[in-house]
Amino acid sequence: MATIVERETIENARSLPGELLKSRLVQVALGISLLGLLASGYVLWRYFSSHESTDDAQIDGHVVAVSARIPGQVAEVMIQDQQIVKAGEVLLRIDSRDYEVAAAKAEADLAGAEATVRAAETDVPITATNASSTLTTATSSRVDAEAGVNAANHQLSIAQARLEAARAQAKAAEADYQKIDDDAARYSFLILRKEISEQQYDHIVQSAESAKATSDARSAEVTAAQENVRVAQSAIQQARARVTQAGAQIQAASTGGQQISLSQSRADLAHANLLERRALLNQAKLNLSYTTICAPVGGVVGKKTVEVGQNVSSGQQLMAIVPVDEIWVTANFKETQLKRMRPGQRATIAVDAYGRELTGRLTAIGGASGARFSLLPPENATGNYVKVVQRIPIRIDLDSGQDLDHRLRPGMSVRAKVYLR
Predict the structure, then answer these.
(1) Using an 8 Å Cβ cutoff, are 267 and 124 in contact?
(2) Does residue 64 or residue 173 have the better pLDDT?
(3) CB 321 within 8 A of CB 66
(4) How far separated are the first and last CA of the chain, in Å rounded?
(5) Could you tell me the strand order of the sheet in which 72-77 lies?
(6) Which of 105, 165, 166, 255 is the S-S candidate for 225 at Cβ 3.0 to 4.6 Å?
(7) Using 50, 70 and 90 to split pLDDT, how confident is the model at 127?
């Protein structure tokens, strides 16, 4: 019995170092595996924490709407859907005959307005000259008329003096005649009685006849003097009428300033009308130029809805042009992914359509969530509110020289990855 126990003890003592070695090896292997797992976990943590990614992203770009600026009938269409056009290339033409007529009429109206302006501008100095000349003439006429009044008054005074003298002379002549006539009557009795000689009587008769002639002459002189007085009075009235007329002319000429202002106002109105006609001509020429519709940008034509013979209205959209040179990516990241995102961070974009990866830079973070930009934003002020993680649009601009063949199109699905370090 003792021998068997001793044997087992000796065998156990011999096998003990091997088991300890195996146990140590297992522990080392477990430690190495644990370190590997920790290292792998750290690497994975570093990898996943170094970027944020989303598959809710797409290629984005401008869509330029081409519309008619004037109404009319389409005369010619030069392009088709999906055609590539250059900036300035003619897309279609609207029938221009109506607009050519309108432009010709506007040119004729402008010519008439220019002629009116020239006439009005010429009339201003003429009116000023006429007003000045009329005032000078009226002033001179008044001075002459006043001088005529003074002269007529002087002539009246002379005529009145001559009338008085003629009356005195006529009265004296009448007295002389009466005396001689009385003497002749007395001498007629004496001649009958033969108290005087016939010679004396004839002398007295001749003297009476001479006195009669003198008296008649003096009466005629009085009549002539009276007529001179009436003529002088009439001349005074005429001279005073000329003074009044000259005063009226002076008053009329005094309105020369208003006449000049009125003429200048007509010239200003004609000039304003000229500017209006010029503007109408420019508008007519613009409308005529709008009959030819050119591509505002270069790109691919899409959504063409116009055909020859179609009547289009002002503002009607005819087609759209997508400029494929201006392409970027709009990626919708969850709000929980934005903590470490900043403009300028590097990004990669995987395009689903072509299986290629592009590079770019985060350039802008949207101002609101997509829900806020929707047609009917959600109303959360209710009792049945459910919190939903929102998405914020992020703009990523592609690095230059990556889409040289212009194969990217707005709306293509992509996967965006933004590196946070």
Answers:
(1) yes
(2) 64
(3) yes
(4) 76
(5) 292-294, 90-94, 72-77, 311-312
(6) 166
(7) low
Question: Tokens at residue 13, please?
Answer: 């003592």
Strand bridging mode 84-85 / 299-302: antiparallel
Q: Which two tokens stand for residue 400?
A: 């230059």
Burial of 54 (0-12, 13-18, 19+ CB in 10 A): middle
Two tokens, residue 293:
């519709």
Both tokens of 106, joined, read 């506007």
Query: Distance from CA of residue 314 to its chain's centroid?
Result: 22
Quick check: 329 and 58 in contact, CB under 8 A? yes
The class (CATH top level) of 100-274 is mainly alpha
Question: C-alpha 200: how far from its chain's center?
Answer: 117
- Residue 2's pLDDT band, with cuts at 50, 70 and 90, is very low
Q: Any idea which residue has 């006195």 for tokens?
A: 211
Per the structure block, which two tokens stand in for 385? Answer: 């509110």
- Per residue in 183-233, pLDDT (tens digit) is 666 666 566 665 556 666 666 667 666 766 776 676 776 677 677 777 777
The DSSP letter of residue 399 is P
3-state DSSP assignment of residue 154 = helix
Q: Which two tokens stand for residue 394?
A: 């992020």
| Integer Cα distance of 127 and 266 in angstroms | 12
The two three-digit tokens of residue 382, written as one number: 């209710």
Domain 66-98+288-319 fold: OB fold (Dihydrolipoamide Acetyltransferase, E2P) (2.40.50)
